Write the structure tokens for this entry.
Amino acid sequence: MSNVPADLRYTRSHEWIRNLPDGTVEIGITDHAQHALGDLVFVEVPEAGRSLKAGEASAVVESVKAASDVYSPLSGEVTAGNPRLATEPEAVNTDPYGNGWLMRMRPAAGSATEGLMSADDYLKFLETEGG
Amino acid sequence: MGRQTPLYDLHRESGARIVDFGGWDMPLQYGSQIGEHHAVRRASGVFDVSHMCVVDLRGERARELLRKLLANDVARLKRPGKALYSCMLNESGGVLDDLIVYFINDYAYRVVVNAGTRDRDLAWIREQARALEVEVRERTDLAILAVQGPEARAKTARLMTETARREALALEPFFGRELDGWFVARTGYTGEDGFEVMLPAGDAARVWRALNAAGVASCGLGARDTLRLEAGMNLYGNDMNESTHPFESGLGWTVALQPPERAFIGRPALEAVLAAQTAGKSIPRQLVGLILEDRGVLRNHQRVLVPADAAAAGAADGEITSGTFSPTLERSIALARIPATDAAGVQVEVRGKLLNARIVKPPFVRFGKAMVELPEAPR
């Protein structure tokens, strides 16, 4: 079974969002997503300062077999890409909600959050998706 | 739902992720694909390759049939059990399939063809066989297990009777023989030592479990692909197909143009290709190995740019035919079809960026060891 922490919010494209105390958010891909992708061998994260629109391809995760885009769940400005992933892409597999975070961003004022799901809703979504 | 091998239920029970491969429901991986890859390089792994098709040819003119059907020459096979790798070509010199043929005796050969092409291959072989009265028998009663890795032969042999075990361990590379109802061959698709075992379908699950119990890891098609690419072996449909000929597919060494009187299918077309290249009327293409110097992963169909000063005028761009991340080398590697060049490196267009790759001669890895010089670890 997929691990879905209760304190995060989720997207239908399997990203998670964590609110940080300073008003920024941390973004990664879910346990379900890392499992579906398989062993990751290359991750490209956005650079600090890049401005992103919600739904924009912002990071790339590549497993042995295929490359997949990761979409920004919110509009805003990137404050950091996870530097660890350049040499340790497997952190996304082993610790998707911790060391395997992809990027941090400061959401734009009024950036829409209503498309985001609670942990319960994401679990239901995984069930209906056959995940 | 696709076709299933005799081991399908066992794969499901083992938690394998099942994917479609050439119309077959096959295990992609059981756990970590990279873990399965390393198991084969360092110890042993077993693959279900029962989707491949065993075809037995029998008849007084079986050799004559194969000397017409195949670009390599079965007359080179002098000792019973010896295997030969060959392309089967169409009239235009394009590759219909690549296969292995085992010389059983003067009137009997065993051929193993790819899953994705089996129906077309069978129809083609039967059509040619009819006139020569050679019997073509598709062995759907057999399963095929590929047990590969430095410990593979010893662990497989332990499951055999004492006499069979001795005979199996005495097999030379690229030889096979019937032993206690199994056909055991010292062949493979990983760049490691090992056996490919063709056995009655009903025995397959028991043998698979016994191999697992002996410490042989279950391995899926994902690891099979990274292993074969590291070994510099072509995959039919990726690296060659009916519209590419062997010389531009790294398979010139498998085309037997001697003796000149052997009229195999595709020969006139291949001779025309060589004549046009010799006369400077066409730019030859070649299949080369690439190793990425920058960060990223090479993938099938990415565009390959040969430096302008090292390419023939008017040459088209090249293309990656198989690309992946090499778990052994921890670099991205690929096979690419490019216009002939003496350049040391090329650029590959990866997600809109041009990355540098070095041209190398495959194999990349053989018997667990790197066979190419590695670029510095990219940052």
